[in-house]
Amino acid sequence: MFSGRTETARLALKHGLPLMVGLPENADSGALMVYGPSRTDLSRRAAGFVDRILKGAKPADLPIEQATKFELVINLRTAKALGLTIPPSLLVRADRVIE
User: Domain ranges in the chain?
Assistant: First the structure.
């Protein structure tokens, strides 16, 4: 899905389908919206796990964690192409808006 994100977004737009996905890169490729875990936050947390393992912790003993920070990205260019109006109340909640 990642390698074909531009083609997927193009096909969705061609067929008038709003595409919502979980990776921020997909919004830049033309998806209407992205809502998913913050990749920056996940990377920072992964670095903490690596640090603990390098200090001798056993990977099997480390807790499983869920993402705690999520990002919302809205692509207004795609919304316009689909003839959609995004409510202002949703736009103010977005972490990033592509115009």
Answer: 5-98
pLDDT digits (tens, 9 = 90+) for 15-73: 999 999 887 777 888 899 999 998 889 899 999 999 999 999 999 999 998 989 999 99
DSSP string for residues in 33-92 = EEEEE-HHHHHHHHHHHHHHHHTT--GGGSPP-----EEEEEEHHHHHHHT----HHHHT
At residue 35, what are phi and psi to the nearest 5 degrees?
Answer: -140, 115
Cβ neighbourhood burial of 29 (10 Å; 0-12, 13-18, 19+): buried
Structure tokens at 82: 């689909």
Q: How far apart are CA 26 and CA 68, in angstroms?
A: 21
* Token pair recorded at residue 87: 């409510």
User: What is the C-alpha to C-alpha distance for residues 23 and 5, in angstroms, rounded to an integer?
Assistant: 10
